[in-house]
Amino acid sequence: MRIITGSAKGIQLKTPTGLSTRPTTDRVKESLFGILGYLVEDARVLDVFAGTGNLSLESLSRGASSAVAIDKSANCQRIIRENAVKTRLDDRITVLKGDGLRYLAQYASEGRQFDLIFADPPYEQGFVEKVVTLVDTSDVLADGGVLIAEHSKKEMIDEASLAKLEIRRQERYGETVVSFLMHKKVVKES
């Protein structure tokens, strides 16, 4: 796994051993960032299930202004910090150990906003639905921002239950689906 482009292009990232994490593959990451395009530039990034820090660090390498990477594993937290130093992006990333959902709820209650929110939780455990619901019922996603949820094809997002968000795009990569959610377009009556 490596940083694909930007200031840290080509740098290999350290990954934890074992099956406790499922890092986003380079192929999926390249497609995901191709879709996001210019939206990454100067973005405030939140990664609520950060794992290796792969998505946060790729964002920073491509010009995001800041990133908060959260993971409950002390080992993942250590690896994210090591990867941040290795890529020389450690001055723009905050690494937190804890429950990504709790931090997301805390930031929402504090009125903090992010332009890009990455959610790549363990599959088929209800986390994607919880993240989408939390973002949908708060203002933690800035106007024009994107929630990027990576999930199993077996756990689809119930778009009909969403009040503020809508799925703007979905891409499938084998068993993995990446959903891009944004605020619904409001049509003003004249």
Structural description of this entry:
With 190 residues, this protein is α/β, with parallel strands linked by helices. It has one domain (26-183): Vaccinia Virus protein VP39 (Rossmann fold). It is built from 5 helices and 7 strands; from the N terminus they run αβαβαβαβαβββ. It has helices at 26-36, 54-61, 74-86, 100-110, 127-136, and strands at 44-47, 66-71, 93-97, 114-119, 141-152, 165-173, 176-183. It has a 7-stranded mixed beta sheet, sandwiched between helices.
H/I helix tally: 5
Q: Decide which structural class fits the backbone.
A: alpha/beta
What is the fold-level CATH name, i.e. the topology? Answer: Rossmann fold
CATH architecture: 3-Layer(aba) Sandwich
> Into which percentage range does the β-strand content fall?
25-35%
Please list the strands of the largest sheet in the order they lie side by side: 3-2-1-4-5-7-6
Question: How many beta-strand elements?
Answer: 7
Low-confidence stretches: none
Q: Write down the CATH class.
A: Alpha Beta
SSE ordering = HEHEHEHEHEEE
Average of pLDDT = 91
The CATH superfamily name is: Vaccinia Virus protein VP39
Q: Determine the N-to-C terminus distance.
A: 51 Å
Largest sheet: 7 strands, mixed
